[in-house]
Amino acid sequence: MHVPDGYLDAATTAGTAAVAAAGVALALRGARRELDERTAPMAGLTAAFVFAVQMMNFPVGLGTSGHLIGGALTAVLVGPWTAVLCMTVVLLVQAVVFADGGLTALGANTTLMGLVAVGVGYGVFRLLRAVLPATRTGVLAATGVGAFLSVPTAALAFSALFALGGTADVPAGTVAAAMVGVHLPIGLGEALISVAVLGAVLAVRPDLVRGARDLVRGSALAPRPEAAGRPAAPTAADAR
Prior knowledge:
By secondary structure, the chain is an all-alpha fold. The protein is built from 9 helices and 2 strands.
């Protein structure tokens, strides 16, 4: 999914850079409402996790491979605005340190994986949360579907950018078909990994999952005192 230097012409590259800059500016303002004593440390951990997992590729077929984008998962864990900032930092470090995605294409990559993937993944998550049961299973199902759809949607967005300003002499329809065909199985892997990670966090510290805090308040999902680092309340057996 990382766009290298030279795949898009100068006008399209500049346009995506402007879109990315505007999106990050909005995210900086929106993240003020999301960041608190729980979200801030979680954002750092989530960004580090996404960075590490994006460096690990899994085979898709026909010589291609894919990796976790992490937009939907990050948005569910720390909120959509903070997720945009996390993804932007990850993409910037990857481009500068590992040359994974070109520096001139940073705007395109931020737009695709930081704005489109996060926006679609979290948007689908919120829509499904409104209709699914307010349970742990409902949260996981909404996350899985959002994660799955975010990947081919980002691929389609790249196809649209390529149709506008691609530098290679390849028909736009061919690019779109190839991108969607490859990224559908990648999306399935994205969904499975996102559900597995979120399920693990919900099992131990559900209060750290911003997208599920409504289930924690006064519910059985509240973290155990031991898991939260607090001593358990004395029981009748302890008093004897």
